Amino acid sequence: MANNDRIYEAYMGEMGEKFRKQTIERMDWILQQVGDRETVLDIGCSQGIASILCAQQGAKVTGIEIQKENCDFANELLHREYGTISDRVRFINQDFMNYNEKEKYDALILTEVLEHLENAEEFLRHAEQFLKEDGLLVITVPFSFCDHPDHVYTFYLGSLVELVGKVFTVSSIFYGGKWLGCVAGKTGQSINLNKAAFAEEETAFLELHRELDTRITELAASLENVNRRYKESCEAYDRVKEWYSSEQKKTSELTDNYNRLKGWHESSLEKIELLQQQADRFKMDIKEREQKLSDSRDAYERLKQWRENDQNKLIDAVKAEHQQMLVMQKAKRTIQKQQTEIQLLHAENESYKQKLSVIYNTWYGKLAMKCYNFLKKLKRRLTK
Question: Which of 45, 82, 91, 363 has the highest CB neighbour number within 10 Å of its CB?
């Protein structure tokens, strides 16, 4: 048995307000039927909301669910939101056909389960052993045709009473709009499928058809609106298509311009690369020239320093030469003076010689010469 019913989400309004209202009405009807019964077995309990609501009424409830995901959700929900009643509810993850506990219950609940079962009669006979003799079976199923992929049964008044009547005694039927409720037990008298019963079903059908007509009217209005919007969309599509065609032409022109620009760009890149190479060579040349200029400056500085040094040396040499010239000029003047003095001395000497020659021949002249020679020698000695 597989049950994909998301009953708690529907009950909390997470699947729409209308579905929430229908789910609450169904839960309220089930709770009214269970009443103050003390023990309840909820077969195919799905996400556990019916079990929890029965426990809030005071019952001790066991919920059986074949899908582990739903059973885990029910346990988590019980302890998170309804911890005060967790001691009165237990959830079992098991195929009900393998459930064999000995306990019998005051009420059994089968809500939205039978329509999923190919072996529905066998399933009901297995459930019968867990119901007390005065116990109550509460069943809900979809009413009329439902195209859910998991549904193998379609229930109307006769088909539901016939199926349940093979195992239990059907005591009452309830029409809840799109769902059908059934109350049965082990004892008592079964309902009579008479003209009144079928008239009640026809009334339920009428109500269902009215709802369907209203839904069809709403869908027709929605379809008309959709058709109008579709027509507007087609007109908009034609405009967009025309615009797109125009844009394609522009795009083609832009593509051609782009290709030309791309070619020009590639050519420019090649020229730029050549210019870059030339610039690199110029940079190298400039670098070499700067190096040469630096070397020339260094050489010029060295030459300038050398020149300054040579100029200083030349100036010193000129000064020395000039000083030497001055010394030589002074010496020359001294020599000339001495030569003049010598010449004067020679002249005097000659005069003296003449005088001496006159004096020399006399005795007093000779004596004077001897005195002169003596004084001359004495003078030399003194000058030394």
Answer: 45
